[in-house]
Design goal:
The protein is mostly beta strands. The chain contains two helices and 14 strands; from the N terminus they run E-E-E-E-E-E-E-E-H-E-E-E-E-E-E-H. It has helices at 106-122, 257-260; strands spanning 5-12, 18-24, 35-42, 48-54, 59-62, 74-82, 87-90, 94-95, 123-129, 170-186, 189-201, 211-214, 220-232, 235-245. It has a six-stranded antiparallel barrel with strand order 9-10-11-14-13-12. Strands 3, 4, 6, 7 and 8 form a five-stranded antiparallel beta sheet that branches. Strands 1-2-5 form a three-stranded antiparallel beta sheet, with no helix packed on it. It is flat.
Length: 289
């Protein structure tokens, strides 16, 4: 197969950890045994393997302690390995040096801190379930010729056509600015749903049709609109979201969100321990999602 990597990016978290994210070709025929490997190098130096054997993920957190200046340049790249055939593909190289003002500029930090303060006062915590658009095709419902799912209620891919359906959950705080309730007829009577206009810090990256699961109520919302509400230069800092509640008979409710949780949100406030959250979800795991 052709090189499947379409993009790789690196951002620097508030705790100086590096977050490496990538996208791959959607619709490609990925072998079932393929794994991903994260490699790192000081600029001009040798490449070293940080993690290998990664499956079912689209992000890696490099949280190693750094004793050198944050402006020290280093690079990352991804390698796809197919053990059964020996096939390998390497992504482009991404620079992780702090050559951009964000997120250390005072202006950007002030905007984020204002959003964090509002989250402390009226925020709701939930899990962001990112929809898979690439990966191994679902063996149960994907049509061999058309390579498209033929069952939108498939219990294995949740209607995405990709095995697993969604990536592991990512903790995400939102501020609900407006809630609109509506009723629609169905075979079992009238179903009440909600449309929520909300704001969140623009981390982690959010895409159309991702699902946000509210902790306290287990309500699940499909994200239908994403608009930058505050930006610094070309970088979005705060998102405005339009989310529509998913019906309770939808297949997405068959996946318990707490099983998928692997990482709390990055922009963790200093007073995060006082913010309401479900037991056991406050610890930040130092491993890929």
């Amino acid at each position: 197969m052709a090189n499947p990597f379409t993009s790789i990016a690196c951002t620097i978290r508030h705790d100086n950890a590096r977050m490496i994210t990538w996208t791959m070709l959607p619709g490609a025929n990925y072998p079932e045994d393929f794994i991903l490997q994260v490699e790192n190098s000081r600029t001009g130096g040798e490449w070293h393997v940080l993690s290998t054997g990664l499956q079912g993920t689209c992000v890696y957190i490099d949280s190693r302690r750094r004793n050198y200046n944050t402006h020290m340049n280093e690079c990352y790249r991804l390698r796809m390995i197919v053990p059964s055939t020996g096939e390998e593909h390497v992504s482009d190289i991404v620079d992780a040096g702090n050559h951009k003002a964000y997120p250390y500029s005072a202006e950007a930090e002030n905007v984020v801190k204002q959003a964090e303060t509002q989250i402390e006062e009226s925020g709701c915590h939930g899990q962001l379930l990112k929809r898979k658009i690439w990966g191994v095709h679902c063996p149960l419902c994907v049509d061999f010729e058309g390579q498209q799912t033929v069952n939108e209620h498939c219990p294995r891919c949740l209607g995405t056509g990709i095995d697993g359906g969604y990536f592991p959950g990512i903790g995400l705080w939102v501020i609900k600015d407006q809630i609109t309730t509506s009723e629609s007829p169905s075979q079992i009577g009238f179903i009440q749903g909600e449309t929520v206009q909300a704001r969140c810090i623009a981390y982690p990256w959010i895409c159309y049709d991702d699902v946000w699961c509210e902790d306290n109520t287990n309500k699940r919302y499909m994200i239908k609109q994403i608009t930058p509400a505050a930006s610094y230069k070309t970088t979005a800092l705060v998102y405005s979201l339009k989310m529509m509640q998913v019906e309770y008979n939808d297949v997405i409710h068959s996946v318990p969100a707490d099983v998928l949780v692997a990482e709390q949100g990055s922009w963790e406030n200093k007073k995060a321990s006082t913010m309401p959250s479900r037991s056991g979800w406050d610890e930040v795991l130092e491993k890929p999602w």
